[in-house]
Amino acid sequence: MRLRIVLAAGLMALGATATLAGGASSQFEAYQPDPALRTAPKSELEGRVRRACAIVQARLQNAAESSLERPCGCYAKATLRTLDASEIEAYRTTGYFNDSARAKALDALDSCKLPRPV
User: Fold this and answer.
1) What are phi and psi of 117, to 5 degrees?
2) Is 96 helix (H, G, I), strand (E, B) or coil?
3) C-alpha–C-alpha distance, residues 70 and 52, integer Å
4) Which is it for the CA torsion 71, 4, 117, 22, positive or negative?
5) CB proximity list for 59: less than 8 A, separation 6 or greater
6) Model confidence over 53-81: pLDDT tens digits?
7) Residues 113 and 71: beta-carbon distance below 8 Å
8) How much is the pTM?
9) What is the torsion angle, in degrees rounded to the nearest 10, for the CA atoms of residue 13, residue 103, residue 74 and residue 72?
10) What span, in angstroms and rounded, lies between the C-alpha atoms of 36 and 34?
11) Dihedrals phi, psi of 50, to nearest 5 degrees
């Protein structure tokens, strides 16, 4: 339940994407992705992932979003670097990571020393 609340808060705060790893794709069925995702350059996708990370991690860690800029930058770069073309396309279409991308995102959380959503 806590994960759903955290992810929903991140979605509402961004008004765009739910990118943090955790949870099942079925949680986002009613979510409408930002149409700009379809044509956004990879650098913008990385920025969206970084912002979503900062919002969710700030709530998880009870910390300021600005204090998470570096680790969330690490997370965004590491995650997008490991996604293949089909996973990026799925993200562009849905606005969230599919199951195979989510596994890679969880690995990125670990490598960037960020707590996993529970």
Assistant:
1) -65, 140
2) strand
3) 13
4) negative
5) 6, 9, 10
6) 999 999 999 999 999 999 999 999 999 99
7) yes
8) 0.74
9) 20
10) 5
11) -60, -45
